[in-house]
Amino acid sequence: MPNVFASVQERQGIFRREEALSPDFIPETLPGREAQEREIASLLSPAASGKRSRNIFISGPPGTGKTATCRHVLAQLQEYSSKPACVFVNCWHHDTRQSVLSEIAQKLGQAIPRRGVAADEVYDRVLGQLKRDRQVCVVFLDEADKLSNGEEKVLYDLGRAGEAHGVFIAIVMVSNDEGLLARTDARIRSSLSPACIEFKAYKPTELKAILAKRAEAAFAPGACPPESIALCAAHASMLGGDARIAISALYAAGKSAEAKGHRIVEEDDAREAIGKSMTSAQEKLERDREELITGEKKVLAALEQAGGETTSGDLYALLSGMSPRSVRNYLAGLEGRKIIETQMVQKEGQMVRIVRLRE
Known about the structure:
Layout: H1 4-11, H2 34-48, E1 56-59, H3 66-80, E2 84-90, H4 97-107, H5 119-133, E3 136-142, H6 153-159, H7 161-165, E4 169-175, H8 180-183, H9 186-192, E5 195-198, H10 204-218, H11 226-238, H12 243-259, H13 267-276, H14 280-290, H15 294-305, E6 309-311, H16 312-318, H17 324-336, E7 340-347, E8 350-357
Parallel strand pairs: 1-4, 1-5, 2-3, 3-4
Antiparallel strand pairs: 6-8, 7-8
């Protein structure tokens, strides 16, 4: 019996560099995000000279190039100057104060024992390292909305490092949630006072330009015609201008063509991939639900038991084993992830809080 990998390899040839269609791939140019890239670089330029730079809050819908642009700027800053210590932290994976500080410490060269070290001690190590090296620091916090239920105190720690300890740390917060900053504790907002940069959904022409660049890098010459690129771009445009959806659809179209032994990505391959695709918003919702902590899962289950909408008072009754304060904290976490929404309404002569699942 022939080896299955041998038969798969025989069909390959349409791709030249598959990773160019990976979500983690950082292209050399970012079509449609040149202005934002220059603005971020301008705000961080003092750090390139070893000086204090401005904190930044970057917001916008999923798939609008926020992370890619930040990684692009980070790479160029590191290439341009050795004076700032630059750290990228994904708060999806590091969603506690201790975890964020440990990740920063490790990327600065500190060995953090696996048994764990108290957050305050890790913070002292970070400050000590930066003082010894006489460096400013730029910390990119991707998916910063994952810091909730008190863990966002790390923003206060980093934001006050200059005033309290003479160590200047610039924070670049990145989030899909444009309301995150408004909901953040007033003391944290005051210590950060960030410049705000909005990433709007891509226009159809920008999506086509993005896909054309990715296709040029990913496929063999002539293997991905403009018509197939246009179909994937139009699909993403109709779903809100999300580049991840467009790139995912193009990759799926390429794999479909490859599996059929095609030498080009035909329009039918693109249509088939689009029909089977899941939007990045759906993917994010599924991922968010999988990563909920136990208390949040219990609150969500109770809300689903109530038919997807109820008052906060009735929800407290369903969760009688939890304190109202705990339920409020879990609701805040779920609302921050945009899994639920809340609204104050008048009912029977008094104001009540309605909690409902988001569609």
